Structures are given as C-alpha cells and as structure tokens.
Amino acid sequence: MGRIIAIDFGTKRTGIAVTDSLKIIANGLTTLETKAVIPFLEDYINKESVECIVVGLPKTVMNEDSSIAPKVNEFVKKVQAKFPDMKIDRLDERFTSKIAHQTMLMGGLKKKDRQNKATVDMVSATILLQDYMSLKGF
User: What is the per-residue DSSP string for 29-60?
Assistant: First the structure.
C-alpha cells in the first residue's frame, strides 16, 4: 500500500503532508520553496511508495476559483507531466489556513511559532490530507 501526499500550494512556499503507509495518520512533512516541490516529490516518490497526490483546490467563500487557482492548475499540470501514472486528486482547501491557525493556538504553540508561515503551510497541508482521508473513508 502506498502513501498519500497532500500539497498546500503557495506562490512562495508550499506545505506538504503525508500519510503513514497504512493510511491511518496524516503528518506534516515539510514546507519548501515552491520551485523545489517537484524535485522533492521526485526524490520522495523514488524512496517511498506513493499512490496518490492531493492538491488543494483554492476557492473563494462564493465557491469560485480564487486568484491563485490558475497558478495551482499550472502546477498540477507540471506534476501530471512529471508523474503521468500517479493519481492526482483535488480537494477544496477553503479555510484550511484559518483552521491551521486555530489548531496551533489550541495546541499551545507560542505566538512566534504561530506566525511562522512555513508552519502554517505544513499544518494546512495536514488538514487538507485529513479532510481527504475522511472523505475517502480511510
């Protein structure tokens, strides 16, 4: 059985989360400069069995594509070109950053740590992955 990777795409930084091999737990993996994501995925997929990549689908509260959607779609096309046999799913990512901030606050992270945008991106990817796992019945 392969892992599932979730990607919270950003123009500067991208958060990445991954399941365990049994797909029971979603864990934050890392936050990278966006330009380094595809080389990172290539290395990770060569070392670990991955069956699916989930990429956040940026929507507004009015359920329309957000302003970053074209860049995310372009990124997804690059991932598909690099990994043509990989299943790629999209999932609405509305409010993941807000939920990430609330989760870090409730988890007792200090204000300085909560302001670290890299941490927020990784937690957002983890929330996206948890949502996907719940939706798919894992």
Answer: EEEEEGGGHHHHHHHHHHHS-EEEEEEEE-B-
